[in-house]
Write a structure and sequence with these properties.
It is built from one helix and five strands, in the order ββββαβ. The chain is of the alpha+beta class.
């Protein structure tokens, strides 16, 4: 189970932290940031911006909004852990196999 907030421009999502049982608990006490997308620049959500230091202020604002909702409705705000910081030169996951992938001619989306 997770929580998310979406604005006209941004999408921010946090799943429950490992160990939470989504079938027995509708809400968890601890979440971890996993997704942040700029929907204006990336409508297909291909580039996850979570953890980028350049987008920390956006993520912090959305995290505060997301935590405020359960506080108003349920009376308790969950803890949402920030994603590990990374810089713009770390946009690709560490596990990406090879920088020699032939991206030329690759198209994303549909016709």
């Amino acid at each position: 189970m997770g929580r998310a907030v979406r604005t006209e421009r941004w999408k921010y999502a946090v799943p429950a932290a490992p160990g939470a049982d989504p079938w027995r608990e509708a809400a968890a006490d601890l979440y971890r940031e996993t997704e942040l997308y700029d929907l204006a620049a990336d409508p297909y959500e291909l580039e996850n911006l979570v953890g980028l230091t350049s987008h920390r202020a956006v993520a912090d604002g959305l995290r505060n909004e997301l935590a405020a909702w359960p506080l108003r409705i349920e009376g308790a705000a969950p803890v949402i852990e920030a994603a590990p910081a990374r810089t713009l030169d770390q946009r690709r996951p560490e596990s990406f196999p090879d920088d020699r992938v032939p991206w030329e001619g690759v198209r994303f989306g549909h016709h």
